[in-house]
Amino acid sequence: MYSVDTSALLDGLERYYPPATFPALWDKVDELVDAGRFFVSEEVWEEACTHDAAAKMWLESHGKEKIAIPTDSAVVGDVQRILSSYPKLVANMKGRNRADAFVIAVAKQHGAIVVTGEGSDGNENRPKIPYICQQTGIQCIRFLDIIKSEEWKF
Fold first, then answer.
1. In 3-state terms, what secondary structure has residue 97?
2. Which end of the chain is less enclosed by CB atoms within 10 A, N or C?
3. What is the CATH number of the domain that holds 128?
4. How many Å apart are CA 1 and CA 43, to the nearest integer?
5. Which domain holds residue 27?
6. CB 48 within 8 A of CB 40
C-alpha cells in the first residue's frame, strides 16, 4: 500500500510520467487505486486540488471517497506526535507542505509505504518526509520505486 504525497503525484503526472505519454503506467496505478493500495490523505487531496490542475483532475477522476483517506482521531494523534517531535516540518512553509505529517500518519495507520518526491537531504533542523520516515521506521520511496516494487514492465 502507498500513502502518496503531493510532490510524488506531481512527479508522476507532470515531471516524469505524464499520462498522455505513459498511459499503460497510469492504467497500472488506477488498478492500485481500485484495489485500495494507492491513496492520499485528505490533506494531500486538498493541497493537490488547490495548487495543481493536473493533480486535481486526476484525483477528481477517481473520486475523493475512493482515493482520499479521511482524517480520523488516530491520524490526528499521529500528526500531533510527528509535529511535536519535528516542529520545523511545517515552519515557514507558506501553506505548502502542510500535508506532510498527514502523509506519514496515514502510512503508519494503514501499514503503507510513503511515496514522496522530496529528497533525502532533510535533517533535524530542516526535516523532510524521508528524514522523518527514516527516524520513525516507515519505509519511504519515490514514484519510480512503485514501478520497481510492483515489478511492472512496459
1. coil
2. C
3. 3.40.50.1010
4. 18
5. 2-150
6. yes
